Amino acid sequence: MKINPNRIFTIGALCVFLSFFACENKTPKVNSQMWLKRKAADKVTYVVDSARLRQYQHIADSLDIIPVLSVTCTDPDFDVYHSLYHHGIAFESEQMAYRIYFDKKHTIDVYAKRTPQLELEQSLWYPNDEQLAAGFGDDVLRVSGAIGVGAVKPWNGNKMVHIEKWQSRTERIIERSYNRTVQEIEVKGWQTEGKQVDMQVRYTQYADRRDAEVEVFLSEPLDSLVTGLQKLPLKSVPETDDPDDVRCSAELKNSDLLGSWGMDWPVEDTIKYHKEIVGLGLYVPQQYIQDYQEDKRNIMFRFKPLTYMKFYITVVAQKENNPPARNQKDFFDFLKQWREELLLEDNRKQ
Fold first, then answer.
1. Which of 211, 33, 16 is CA-nearest to residue 120?
2. Alpha helix positions (H), the chain
3. Long-range contacts of the stretch 50-54 (C-beta < 8 A, 24+)
4. Cα maximum dimension of the chain
5. Which residue in 62, 99, 114, 224 is a FRET match for 303, CA 20 to 30 A apart?
6. Residue 41 DSSP class
7. Tell me, what's the pLDDT at 268?
8. Residues 6+ away with beta carbon under 8 Å from 263
9. Percentage with pLDDT > 90 across the chain
10. Residue 43 — φ and ψ, nearest 5°?
11. Nearest to 121 by CA among 26, 33, 236, 252
């Protein structure tokens, strides 16, 4: 059966609004949000998040931002990345938070919690001194131009590159209920492989889970699409003068499972923000994998030329009060167990 992502979006968009009423008397266990700076409102097309505007008018006024459910840009020269307060959609469970950069990279960044709780509505991804002192988490990864954890990118035969030459780009929140949040990147009119292709990448996170499910929808199959994990350099050892000298603390490379363990903290202030040791995980079912690829900064799987793919991402941070793994070996064991659990879940759904 061919999946129509546009129809799914129409149904999903309705769910965003209906979920506010259906979950009125339930305490949310997930969250998603996107904030557009008011000064950029005339440069893009957007849908206001009316429920959040009513609830967080004080935040919107103090930071001069608008809570939105979707943003679409048709001008390739306009800087959407800096026009969104935390640079794209951020979504979270009580265990882990992610954000999707709204630029040519579409990289997935990570915010780890010390204590399981929802935090983004208060910290807006950037916790202040009082929140940090109270035990809030924060951004634990410097992704820069790398693939982050589970971004979907083109492969040029030698390295991962970014998504460019498009007609429009959109980020949207499809659903935000008390136990599930669904968000999506869409690129229309993407010129790649001599074709003009539409692509949607959908990220779903459930309550009580640190991982996220990712689905990719394509209007035409592509042979050069990859996903993967960034290598985590050993910042604790002297580095050479070569800017491309990236040494990973540890990597796991199985036929359908990738892991990366190490540290690449996002800020230089290591007094206020500690050096972060994290584990990144990716599981792609075998039926979607064409081969393994690697460049200086990333380990990746290249997808088969299909119009639908699905995979999963997860993260463990050593800063958590009770992480499921505190060292490389335990983390890679955790990933193998996680993969087995996902296989069982998928088998039950069939």
1. 33
2. 5-22, 50-55, 57-63, 120-123, 129-133, 328-349
3. 51/20
4. 57
5. 99
6. G
7. 57
8. 232, 233, 234, 235, 236, 249, 275, 276, 277, 278
9. 76
10. -100, -15
11. 33
> Which amino acid, one-letter code, is at 77?
D
Q: What's the whole-number mean pLDDT along residues 38-60?
A: 94
Confidence of residue 144 (pLDDT cuts 50, 70, 90): confident
Q: Are 152 and 162 in contact (CB under 8 A)?
A: no
Q: What local confidence, expressed as pLDDT, does residue 207 receive?
A: 97
Q: Where are the alpha helices (DSSP H) in 77-134?
A: 120-123, 129-133
Cβ proximity of 32 and 91 under 8 Å:
yes
Cα gap 77→85, rounded to integer Å: 19
> What CA–CA distance (Å, rounded) separates 165 from 226?
18
Q: What is the pLDDT of residue 349?
A: 77
> How many angstroms separate the CA atoms of 52 and 323, rounded?
31
Confidence at residue 348, expressed as pLDDT on a 0 to 100 scale: 81
Cut 0.85: pTM above it: yes
Question: Is residue 204 packed enough to be buried (19+ CB in 10 Å), middle (13-18) or exposed (0-12)?
Answer: buried
Chain position carrying tokens 């003068």: 241
Distance CA 95, CA 2 (A): 34
Instruction: Tokens 């069939």: give the residue.
Output: 350
Spatial neighbors of 103 by CB under 8 A, at least 6 apart, are 79, 80, 81, 87
- Cα 348 to Cα 204: distance, rounded to the nearest angstrom: 18
Distances (CA, A) of 194 to 10, 28, 83, 200, 316: 29, 45, 31, 19, 39
Backbone angles phi, psi at 77, to 5 degrees: -95, -10
Q: What is the pLDDT of residue 12?
A: 47
Beta carbons within 8 Å of 21's beta carbon, 6+ residues apart? none
Tell whether the model's pLDDT for residue 48 goes beyond 80: yes
Residue 61 φ/ψ, nearest 5 degrees = -70, -40
